[in-house]
Amino acid sequence: MFAGFAGLLYWLWSNTASNLAARGIRVGFDYLDRQANFPISESVLPYDPSDTFGWAYLVGVANTAAISFTSIVAATLLGLLIALVRLSRNPLASTIAAVFVGGVRNMPLIVQLLFWYALATTLLPAPRLAFNPLPGVYLSLRGLYLPSLSLGEHGNVFLLLAASVIVGLAILRRQLSATLRDPLGWSAVVVIVIAALALIKPAVSVPELKGFNFVGGLRLSPEFAALMLGLVLYTSVFISEVIRGGIEAVSRGQWEAGRALGLSERHTMFRIIIPQALRIIIPPMTSQYLSTVKNTTLALAVGYPELGLVVGTVINQTGQAIESISILLAVFLTISIGVSMFMNWYNARVALVTR
Question: How far apart are CA 274 and CA 222, in angstroms?
Fold first, then answer.
């Protein structure tokens, strides 16, 4: 069966390539090394129009991965909060949460994105009249400006090493636990941190109004803010229903057992109920996470340069539609498989093992 499917794909590709060649249209991925010559308004990775189309794709992938990860984490936390409010004994809070869930989940995501984008670009003041709720924090129609931490020229190397160390310690959890209990281990950690700070020389950058806009600090564009608000709110209400269903599926006897042990409601919830509910929550939660990743393609409605927008721009520049769409499909397939594998692994860890 697999051989037949592979043969079908090969036939489709070869037939399409021959038809395009007959019309004088080149096929192939050699265009990835050519200069892109188009801007990307904001990116996680450094980008310049003189970079190649291949690097532009990587920048789009990084933007998609960043917005997916951030929105999934934020939506999960907000969804947990909404679920707990809906389960509370306060009728007013529970009713408000139920109305919020019903309203948001029955409104198309694209409409919500356009609504938040319209608010961000029309109702907020100009930079000179920007809201200043906290020192160094400014909100205007140009975006949200926050103080940022600069790690200097060695910052990227430091972050890479720090991430590698964290992953290594997470794998070697027993060694990490022993190190943290040992005074010499604590001393070594403190020395390493001080040496790293002395090497990278971190500096705080605070946004300042110069001319018609702010300079310095960290800027979150209206496009990014609208996309985050829309994705997080829309996803969180579905996640809240998944969490609420999982919690309500746990036997009421578990609550009574917690009270019999003298545990508070909070401790009973987070130490007894939720660990058992995870076995029910995780499978449908996986579907919500996958939907969130795929919903990032709607970012083009508000102009945020995720992979879909970059692919559309590349197609307009080069005409390499088949190759670009193939890359788009391959990237989202890879991300989806990665999310599924992680969630399946975690589901296996919390599953109830019976022999």
Answer: 36
